[in-house]
Design a protein that fits this description.
Length: 755
């Protein structure tokens, strides 16, 4: 069986190590030899020690690291046929005909070219006597699967964001939050330069996540000829309205409508000269690339790396090279050649000053989201509201979750832009029943995006009767209700079907991620990052200690999402969830496996993650006692119950951006329902990676009311992979979970047709 090799190329991106780890481990799991190629194409051309067979252990403790541990380089030689000829020989000598390339569009273009000329390279090498006839025949097909490692999220393809984007956004948001707090103290204006030569995604998303005042991106320049005056008018208005700080974001490749570059320092100078603001410019530079990988990038890199191996295993001679991406928790495949040319088309549109074309070429989602940003980050509502305008109310129900405040701000702004009035019901449904409503004003305070918790007071209680709620609806002449919350909120909205005569929409927000109708709830990305931080801390602390097992308990009620996702992204050894179930026999087997690895000197530290209700009888105390007793001669045990720490402190960029998208889409839909007198009770959510709105009555059909969980979970596909990557071997994965994964891998939409 031919070996599988992985390499990272072009600009480095956090999450690349997760790809390397997943490719190596899954290849070994399937009985293949796994190689890494150091320094990208340079290592492939140079051969020798630059192409190295990796063992399981070689990929230990790399998942959290930023950058790429196997290096990346730009290689001029590979651009020439002579360089590719050397690379071909080096691969054939090692019987490598399966490659996973993790890089940007340049690297993937090179990969495609290499695949297309592979047979002619073989023939040339054979004629020159550098490889034998047998070698040529054995290696006749080169299979290449690509994955996009790029912090810029600049690839136009079927997958969602690219590997590295989320970490970069985390760094950017941390920096902007920090700069904003000092700028606010001194009433300054801050101008920040964000990476992105051809693609404004990072600046756009950072703008959404921090409520920036003005954003310059290459694909959508200011529409005014004199953008300097437009910028200054806007900032002036903001200051007069009482803002203590102004934030301007400039993408590296920003241009005006005539194609002239807009440079950070020039923007700063314009503000100083015309407005006399105390203005500081900060170029974030390589800070954006660095540091430990975010939970999502680890998840993305791991899932995609694993799916690349699965794709290679299923590739047949003649299949075109493809790129693997992820939508929700499912792999999606794009033709490599097509994705590269679609990506290059954006740059071409921008170069020709066809900005409509550029935004369109980025995809429908990008266009919609740029529109949302413009709607909610205006200096004042587009349409003035008066007492005759439609009124809506927003309330939060359930435990606080990061992103609730961003969702409230976006809902209020979107509705006010449409000329509507929005009230906030303080204290959830109780507040609504008692008529504790506050008319919301345009929220100019940028810190709302960055605030954890819930600024309008959330409450778990749901009404027993809706009489008082209906009285409030009549009193305020409400036309629709936005509910932000978790499973209780879903139950309440479902009850309202028969007793509340206005439309209602639920925006899922709970760190448990247990709302049927959405594979993702606001707050859970922040929570996963918080748990992954705890796992990292344990691993680091364990490094200096004797053999030890950490048992970390997460919140999540009966839903294992938080435990499994954090365990998956954190590289935990064992994860216990209610969905899989725990038996005493399984725990004893796990302990035996740990002991074997310690005795064989393979590993000394183990992380076990359990979700709080994974088994009501085998609780944390029981598990601790069992592990301690059974492992007493071999390892010590430490337990960490994270409890409310799971909520995290500040909302992650993912939660802030997702909150804005959920809220704007929900608001658009609910206003439409109110206009057309459609009294639907709805839930907005992410289904297979895309925004979807469905009736709550349909969503609850998928609810396990006793356990308060969905009955179908797309994220469960991580379960078999977690076990494979934690070296359970084939036997450790229960057949039902293995078949879930097989179905996922086979669910190819045939986008990678034959050449
Ligand atoms: P990125 O992959 O991040 O876009 P580059 O564009 O610098 O980064 O590409 C990385 C490497 O991929 C280059 O140094 C080169 O070795 C290889 N490469 C890029 N474009 C081509 C091409 N058209 N033909 C062959 N190799 C290429």
């Amino acid at each position: 069986m031919s070996a599988i090799a992985v390499f990272t190329s072009g600009g480095d991106a956090p999450g690349m190590n997760a790809v390397v780890r997943a490719v190596v481990r899954l290849a070994i799991h399937h009985g293949r030899e796994a190689f890494v190629i150091y320094e990208g194409y340079q290592g492939m051309v140079d051969g020798g020690d630059m192409i190295k067979q990796f063992t399981w252990k070689d990929t230990s403790l790399i998942i959290h690291q930023g950058g790429t541990v196997i290096g990346s380089a730009r290689c001029m030689e590979f651009r020439e046929r002579s360089g590719r000829l050397k690379a071909c020989k080096n691969l054939v000598d090692r019987n490598i005909t399966n490659l996973v390339c993790c890089g940007g569009d340049g690297s993937l273009t090179g990969a495609n070219m290499f695949k297309l000329e592979w047979s002619s390279l073989l023939e040339e090498l054979n004629q020159a006597g550098d490889i034998t006839e047998e070698q040529m025949k054995a290696c006749w097909f080169l299979n290449i699967v690509g994955c996009v490692g790029s912090i810029d999220n600049d690839m136009v393809y079927k997958g969602g964001v690219t590997i590295g984007t989320d970490t970069a956004l985390n760094r950017i948001i941390d920096a902007i939050d920090a700069v904003q707090s000092t700028a606010s103290s001194h009433q300054r204006t801050c101008v920040l330069e964000i990476m992105g030569r051809n693609c404004g995604y990072l600046a756009w998303a950072a703008g959404v996540a921090t409520g920036a005042d003005f954003i310059f991106i290459p694909e959508s320049p200011p529409k005014e000829d004199d953008w300097e005056s437009a910028l200054c008018d806007h900032l002036n208005f903001r200051r007069r309205a009482g803002a203590r700080l102004c934030t301007v974001l400039v993408a590296e490749g920003a241009i005006d409508k005539f194609g002239n570059a807009i440079k950070t320092d020039y923007v700063r100078q314009v503000i100083v000269d015309r407005l006399k603001h105390d203005t500081r410019a900060t170029i974030l530079g390589h800070v954006q690339r660095g540091g430990h990988a975010s939970a999502y990038d680890r998840l993305l890199g791991t899932m995609i790396g694993a799916m690349c191996v699965e794709k290679l295993r299923r590739t047949e001679p003649g299949d075109a090279a493809c790129i693997v991406g992820l939508r929700g928790f499912r792999p999606v495949y794009s033709k490599l050649e097509e994705a590269v040319s679609d990506t290059q088309a954006v740059a071409e549109f921008t170069k020709n000053l066809d900005f409509k074309g550029a935004i369109g070429a980025r995809g429908k989602g990008f266009k919609k989201h740029v529109g949302f940003l413009k709607a909610i980050n205006r200096d004042k509502p587009k349409v003035s509201t008066d007492h005759n305008s439609k009124a809506f109310v927003i309330l939060c129900c359930g435990a606080p979750a990061s992103g609730m405040n961003a969702a409230i701000r976006a809902t209020v702004h979107y509705c006010m832009n449409e000329g509507c009035v929005v009230y906030a019901a303080h204290g959830g449904f109780s507040g609504l029943a008692q008529g504790h409503l506050e008319k919301m004003e345009w929220i100019r305070d940028q810190s709302w995006q960055a605030l954890g918790g819930c600024s309008i007071q959330t409450d778990r209680k749901i009404p027993v009767s809706y009489e008082q709620v209906n009285e409030t609806i009549q009193k305020y002449n409400l036309r629709g209700i936005f509910v932000v919350g978790g499973f209780d909120a879903l139950v309440a909205v479902n009850h309202m079907e028969n007793c509340v005569a206005i439309p209602v929409i639920l925006i899922p927000a709970t760190i448990s991620n247990n709302v049927p109708g959405s594979e993702y709830s606001l707050g859970c990305d922040t929570a996963v990052n918080a748990v992954v931080d705890a796992i990292d801390t344990c691993k680091i602390s364990a490094d200096s200690a004797a053999s030890r097992v950490f048992i970390i308990e997460t919140q999540g009620n009966f839903c294992g999402y938080l435990a499994l996702t954090a365990g998956f992204a954190g590289g935990a050894d064992i994860v216990y969830t209610d969905e899989e179930g725990i038996t005493l026999e399984q725990m004893l087997l796990d302990i035996a496996r740990i002991k074997c690895q310690i005795v064989a000197d393979q590993k000394r530290h183990f992380v076990v993650v359990r979700n709080e209700n994974c088994n009501l009888r085998y609780d944390m105390n029981f598990m601790k006692t069992l592990y301690e007793e059974e492992g007493k001669d071999c390892f010590s045990v430490r337990v960490i119950q994270l409890g409310h720490l799971c909520q995290g402190m500040y909302p992650s960029p993912f939660d802030r951006v997702r909150a804005t998208n959920f809220a704007c889409t929900a608001a658009k839909h609910l206003i439409n329902c109110a206009d057309n007198k459609v009294n639907d009770k709805l839930v907005i959510g992410q289904v297979a990676g895309r925004l979807a709105i469905q009736k709550v009555s349909d969503a609850v059909k998928d609810a396990n009311m006793n356990k308060r969980t969905p009955m179908t979970n797309s994220w469960i596909s991580m379960l078999p992979l977690q076990k494979m990557l934690a070296k359970y071997g084939h036997q450790g994965v229960a057949p039902e979970f293995q078949s879930i994964m097989d179905a996922m891998c086979d669910d190819d939409d045939s986008s990678c047709s034959k050449l």
